[in-house]
Amino acid sequence: MSRFWPWWAVLGVWVTGSVLVHLFYIKRIRFSAELVLPPVRIVDGTQLRLRLPGNLFHQGESNLRPLGNRSALDTLADYLKRNPRRLLIVTGYHTPTESSQTLAGNLGALRAQAVQDYLLDADVPEEQLQIRGQRAESFPVVRDSTSALSFAFVPIRIDADWLARHQYYVDLVHPLQLYFPTGSTEYIQTPDNERFAHEAVAYLRIHPRERLRITGHTDSVGTVAGNLRLSRARAMAVRDQLVKQGVSNRQFTVVAMGDKNPIAPNALPEGREANRRVTLVVDQR
User: Fold this and answer.
1) pLDDT tens-digit series, residues 178-204
2) CA-closest candidate to residue 74, choices 48, 107, 108, 110
């Protein structure tokens, strides 16, 4: 037996070394896994599922770290532009410790703003973005990096203001809708409908035989007779504004439709918002 003890010793060393090596790698793997920040998920139902890397910010800072070419934020920008009725709410977080280490009043809001600026640079409309800053007692920090963001989506409420902002001037022979608050004869002014009015006045002044058709509409709330009067009052109010700018009364055709020609269901609140309108178009002869 004594002749084999060196071999047993070598075998024992080899086994012990193997166990130690395996334990080292297992520990290293576990240690590495603990140091990886979880991704930030961006989910909108079944329509959108994205992941951002977890190391978006340095601790105590608000500048986005480089994301490389064609990041998840670029895909997010494309999604928002294809879905103009979705509002993205970006919430940035900060800890009390971070707040004490920086002069920023709300570091979380600045982090959310960094995402907003990125999306605005990608031509996402500002009305589809909302940012918030929120204090959190703690969140994961690994190697001076953190994510400190969350994303949520809600539908944009369609009202008269939204509809008015999404009416775009093309030319005078393409109808333009003016939208009104309920019961009102004062339409919501936008740069595009003001441009239409300016172009119409200039055109009618030098073309005295041409006519602008002004058609008033209402939703279905109220009586038929009352809606007819209101639609005419809306059309006449628009006409009077243009007359004050030097266009002859004879160059207008005023039509009152009341609630007879809806463009959206009056059973829905946003449908009623869409039906409270005046349509402008130059009649081509």
Assistant:
1) 999 988 999 999 999 999 999 999 999
2) 48
pLDDT in tens, 21-35: 565 555 554 444 456
Domain spanning 161-283: CATH 3.40.50.720: no
Distance from chain centroid for Cα 163: 15
Q: How far apart are CA 29 and CA 55, in angstroms?
A: 19
Domain 40-156 has CATH 3.30.1330.60: yes
- 0.70 cut: is pTM over it? no
Domain pair 40-156 / 161-283, same fold: yes
Q: What is the pLDDT of residue 9?
A: 59
- Using CA atoms, how far residue 168 sits from 161, 195, 215, 242, in Å, is 13, 10, 18, 19
HSE toward the beta carbon, residue 270, CA cutoff 13 A: 9
Please say if the pLDDT value at position 4 is more than 60.
Answer: no
Q: Indicate the domain borders of the chain.
A: 40-156, 161-283
Cα 123 from Cα 105, distance rounded (Å): 28
Select from 75, 88, 90, 77 the least CA-distant residue to 154.
Answer: 88
Instruction: Give dist(CA 278, CA 178) in Å, integer.
Output: 5
CA distance 93 to 51: 18
Confidence of residue 37 (pLDDT cuts 50, 70, 90): confident
Which pLDDT belongs to residue 163?
94
